[in-house]
Design a protein that fits this description.
The protein has about 375 residues and is an alpha/beta fold. It contains 11 helices and 17 strands. It has 2 domains: about 210 residues, Alpha-Beta Barrel (TIM Barrel); about 120 residues, Lyase, Ornithine Decarboxylase, Chain A, domain 1, CATH 2.40.37.
Length: about 375
Amino acid sequence: MRPASPPLLAARARALLGAGALRANLRALSARAGAPLLLPVKANAYGHGLSEVARVAAPHPALWGLAVATPQEAAALAALGLGRPVVLLTPPMPHEVGPLADLGVRLPVASLAEAEALPGHARAHLKVDTGMNRLGARPEDAVAVGRRLAQRGLLEGVYTHFATADEPDPSFAHEQLRRFQGVLSALPVTPEPLLVHAANGGAVLSFGALPGMGLARPGLAAYGFAPAHLRAAVPLTPVMTLQARVTHLHTARAGETVSYGGLWRAAQDTRVATVGLGYGDGYPRGATGQAQVLVAGERRPVLGRICMDQLMVDVSGLNVQVGDWVTLWGPQDITVTDVAAWGGTVEYEVLTGVGMRVEREVE
């Protein structure tokens, strides 16, 4: 049989998604939390690919549902028909409430006006602001909103968000939990137990199982990352490996500079590979001067300023051809944590910045 021809238009960059790593992370986090997971897949599943991650996660026995930040994300998930509840975590515009309810999307509610505006077939999750000061009803107001939702038969869940659960000092997170539990104790009994969720990844890793919680909501941790002081709590594996192709090879002669601004000058003749990925694809421009990549299994420095669509690498002494894959980060050797540190940012920002020119492939 003749081998399949390569695609006419080859990907310049790809994000390889380890399905086994994602499944193992979900299993470990659910065990740590003592609860099923409401997996955040907002921001294109933290850059990993909304549909790709959702399809891998949906059949997992540790998963209850999927959480998103925008109505567009909610509609996209609903269209996949994966058979798992979709929870919108941030408020929709008034005209979006009906169509979202029609799709079965669980809706956030934080005021009596919002509670009254819901159609009769909606399912609501009461959002309580316990100290994040971003969204939700204050504890002194949340009880009345929850009671009205319960009277209308619409209250399915109650949630809050920790502001400091991933910090070494957990004292404010404990205070938030105390405030949240005060609201929960004042809510009426509903025909079905309320789905209560508060623990983000930091809380799952810091506290384990929290009393009264029916779900846990770890975000970045599900994709394999934890603060340094919490890494021993649960074994996690980064899900994404980012690679890009060598698109050009040439020699920079001694004394010549590479890239914008002439920041790097060749001390000797240097074999240079141009790689088809740059800050336009999410690689941080701020990593200029520090970044390294893996070429044929070896760490090699990125030369000069990182460009929008490309970056240049010293490949002297290596057997490299146009079309070869270069690894920018993965589960070991060079990680997103390394790249974030070089760029003066955090893993969240690097991962969610991975652009649409990067093809996602599930392994």
